[in-house]
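note to self — DONT lose this again. spent like an hour looking for the file last time. sequence + predicted structure for the chain T wanted, 116 res
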Amino acid sequence: MWFVVLGLFAGVLSGLFGIGGGIVIVPALLLFFKMKAHMATGTSLAALVLPVGIFGALNYYKQGAVNLNGALLIAAGLAVGAFVGAKVAYELPVRVVQRSFAIFLIFAAYQVWRKS
C-alpha cells in the first residue's frame, strides 16, 4: 500500500517537474522504508523499467512539448549510464554511495535555487 502511495507521489512530481527516481523515490525508500542504498537504487530503477513516464510524456507530446529525437538520445545515454553506474556503485561502500547522493542533491538544490 505505501509503495503505491510513494509511486503516486513520485508520479505527480514527475509529471509536474520531470523528476522521479533519484530525487523522490530513492530518498523515500532510504528514509521511510529503511532500505540500504543499493536496494533503494535498484528498486527505483526496477520500477522505472516499465514505461512509467509514457502517460505524462504523452500529454506533453500532445501539446508539442517533447523533442522526440532528444528524448531517444537521452534514453540511449541513460541505458548505458545506468549500467555503468550500477557497476561502479557496487564497487563502493554503501556509506560513500549515500554521502555522494546527498552531496548531489545539495548541489542540485543550490543550482535550482540560484537560477530561480
